[in-house]
Amino acid sequence: MRPMRHLAVMACVAGLLPLSFSQSTATPQISPAAAESHVGQTATVCGKVVGERMSKYGVGGHGRPITLDLDKPEPNAIFHAVLFSSSSMTEDQLKTTYDGKQVCVTGKITKLAVPTIMASDPSQFQVQATNKP
Q1: Quick check: is 132 in a domain?
Q2: Dihedral, CA atoms, 26, 125, 47, 106, nearest 10 degrees?
Q3: Exposed, middle or buried by CB within 10 Å (0-12, 13-18, 19+), for 40?
């Protein structure tokens, strides 16, 4: 009888393990200002695009890097979201696409000049829907 009890307990524990792991893997959503204290961690940073620029040159088959300043523009930037453009986007299209929009980027926060997430996969980056009155 004792082995059956152990088997039942093991089955319950095994059934609960995926739940505990799924809760611990959720990425926190933070502001650009809070990213400084999360360097080295994976998080989702959401903020308003207040500056954008595109490199003249592509990087190793990833396309041209686009750097977005969130919440504060250069020279006082507090966070950069870097994504890669696979298309030939113009500077005007870049401004129209991102300027003033609320965006979220998910990934590991690194510290370059300011905290930065480099989003090499489009699924890491989202432009938030804007509510129209």
Answers
A1: no
A2: 30
A3: exposed
The answer to whether residues 78 and 32 touch, using CB atoms and an 8 Å cutoff, is yes
Over residues 88-120, the pLDDT tens digits come to 778 888 899 899 999 999 999 999 999 999 998
Q: List phi, psi (to 5°) of 49.
A: -75, 120
Range of the domain at 73: 27-127
Report the C-alpha gap between 105 and 22 in whole angstroms. 21
Please state the domain count of the chain. Answer: 1
Taking only the tens place, the pLDDT of each residue in 19-66 is: 444 444 678 999 999 999 999 999 999 999 999 999 888 777 778 899
